[in-house]
Design the sequence.
């Protein structure tokens, strides 16, 4: 997946306890977090996925 040159879109999903924006990031129409999980570039931690938004 190449992000450079792709259309990047953010979907705001809330704030953390420090007031920072939490968002889903899409590049070229694909969820970046899910793509990282598929490629083994990230590790899934269930307690951080409160709304179960990530999927393999």
Sequence:
């Amino acid at each position: 997946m190449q992000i450079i040159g792709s259309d990047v879109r953010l979907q705001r999903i809330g704030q953390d306890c420090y007031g920072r924006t939490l968002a889903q990031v899409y590049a070229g129409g694909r969820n970046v977090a899910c793509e990282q999980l598929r490629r083994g570039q990230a590790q899934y931690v269930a307690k951080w996925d409160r709304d179960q938004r990530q999927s393999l």
